[in-house]
């Protein structure tokens, strides 16, 4: 069983649909705690470390063979919980970051939340170090996008993200830092790869659960 730790309920149907497409039969169990993101935005990810460990421990106690954290802001804290949990814990954006590093040295990170920018930049730079590749990471905060998300306007949200991606210049690859941004990848007309985290993240987590080699 794969457990998923979310900070918004909007991710539940997204990952259920991906599971049905990519790994039918894989059991998912969802844990949703919006307060984790609220507190991490206000006080920093370290402020929720104990609670994240508790949620990971709850998932492991329920039989999870691996845990996937779908929130980029607290992803690093979640991965750190693996030390005590005894099972693999993966942040959903790690496979995407590795793909971005492989795509080119000029990486632009788009985020709707400022709290997501620093953790995502650090992750891309970490993956670049692992790969032995030089990387230059720039960030873009998509103004007004999160307000659309909070107003329950997903179409307006992803449209703002897609427009921001279309406006990027001087990049080899664009990273959509939050899982909720993924639909914008289908709207953008950017001429460089625009990467989203849900699909590669779920495939990697499924492999950690022993669910096969995953998609090429």
Helices and strands in order, then pairings?
Layout: E1 2-6, H1 11-22, E2 28-32, H2 34-43, H3 49-61, E3 66-69, H4 75-80, H5 82-85, E4 89-91, H6 94-103, E5 106-111, H7 114-131, E6 136-141, H8 145-150, H9 154-166, E7 173-176, E8 194-195, H10 198-208
Parallel strand pairs: 1-2, 1-3, 3-4, 5-6, 5-7, 7-8
Helix pairs in contact: 1-10, 6-7
Tell me what you see in this structure.
The chain has helices spanning 11-22, 34-43, 49-61, 75-80, 82-85, 94-103, 114-131, 145-150, 154-166, 198-208; strands at 2-6, 28-32, 66-69, 89-91, 106-111, 136-141, 173-176, 194-195. Helix content is 48%, strand content 16%. With 216 residues, the chain is of the alpha/beta class. It contains ten helices and eight strands. The chain is globular and about 45 Å long. A four-stranded parallel sheet has the order 2-1-3-4, sandwiched between helices. The two termini are 22 Å apart.
What is the structure about, briefly put?
This is Aspartate/glutamate racemase family protein. The chain is an alpha/beta fold and about 220 residues long.
